[in-house]
Amino acid sequence: MTTRAAGFRDVLGVTEFRALFSAQLVSVTGDQLARVALSILVYDRTNSPGWAALTYALTFLPDLVGGPLLSGLADRYPPRTVMVAADILRAVAVTAMAAPGLPLAAVAALLVGVQLFNPVWNSARAALLPQVLPGETFVPGMGLLMMLVQAGQVAGFALGGLLVAALGTSGALLADAASFAVSAVFLVSGVQSWPPRGEPGVRWWGHVRAGWTVVVGDRRRLALVALGCVSGIYIAGEAIAAPYAAELGGGAVVVGLLLGAYALGNVLGMAALSRIPASRRSRLLGPLAMLACAALLGCALRPDLEATLALLTLSGVASSYNLIANTTFVQLTPDAQRAQAFGFALTALRVSQGIGVVLAGLAAERAAPHGVVAAAGAIGVVAAFGAATLWRRAQPDPR
Q: What transmembrane ranges does the database entry give (predicted)?
């Protein structure tokens, strides 16, 4: 008699996972509302693709500090406590950002503060999830949460353009602040306070160094991080969404459509990938990473809005390889350093995305947006091939 593999229905039957699921949903949706609002706010005030891209990049670059220095909090303190504290602090900061007429410098400073706690929240979730979903239920649970992140981005990006058009940027930012507060309520009411898994008596800096050693000391984990960092290249379509929408003759709604197309494709890709046997998934890492970039080459032909959305959606479908990379990385990481190591990996990912966003914005100051996205696709194919080669060579000798 064969045992049925755990699936989405099994993990949704776990009360604590449903609370994590709900908290993630409202938080991600609100966060995307804010990204659309800030992108439009800065572009409207400055009429500069570079400044709009720089503001978007500020949603990634604070991970350079928060990832390595703060993510280990969830190894040393109860993960739920860390997540709730991060939600409250972000809700307060985003509420302040919604003040009408706030100078752009103050908006940027508050944005940095908000994003500083994003890797803390995500690393705490990564440390908590194997305790909530032990054994075989972990992989479908992680996959469902990653799909939820992208679904939340689709909803947030799609609603973002509409809400900004109807309520203005302040209204969208207040919706983001409310989402963090609701997330904290879900966590407090639905998740128990699991104890930290870190080794007692280890000093803060010692724990940071231990997490770094876990990441760089294994070629497989390094290769997975490299594959994740390829997203810093194919993110160009998101980075310059506002000027790209203007090139296509659209406004705020088109910005939301462009940003949502990639996320929609990612949801579809992960849904399809979850049906493929685990033994075959790792072989798809390289080809899918290259396809995520190659799809953008079609933008060189200056397609219309419908064709552009199709290309971005295809790129999103292929980028579902991150589901394989993410779950494999967590499973390869020891319990005692999981949050800290995940924070380092997230730092590398976000910094690569931040750099990619800034470079795409600067390029869009001198070149047409469709050409910038196509050039990013060409560079990404080469980078993805290199990362895939590292992954293939890091595999244990089958003999």
A: 51-70, 91-117, 137-164, 222-246, 252-272, 284-303, 309-329, 341-364, 370-391
